[in-house]
Amino acid sequence: MTPIEIGIVSISIMLVLIYCGIHVPFVLALTSFVGVWMIRDNFQVAVYMLSQAAAQSISDYIFAVIPLFVLMGMLVSAADLGRDSYYVANRLLHRLPGGLGIATVAANTVFASITGVTIASAAVFSRIAVPEMLRFGYSPRFAVGTVAGSSVLGMLIPPSILLIVYAIIAEQSVGAMFLAGIGPGLLLAGMFSLGIALTAIFYPKAIGGHRTDIAEDEGHLTFREFVEKMGPTLTLVVAVLGGIYGGIFTPTEAGGVGAALALLVALIKRKLTWRILWSILIETGYISSSILFIVISATMYSRMLGISGLPTQISTLVADLDASYFVILAIFVAIALILGTIIDSVSILLITVPLFIPLLQPFDVNLVWFGIIAIMATEIGLLTPPFGMSCYVVRSTLSEYKISLEDVFLGAAPFALIMLLVMIILIAYPQIVLFFVY
Question: What one-character DSSP code corresponds to residue 214?
Answer without folding.
Answer: S
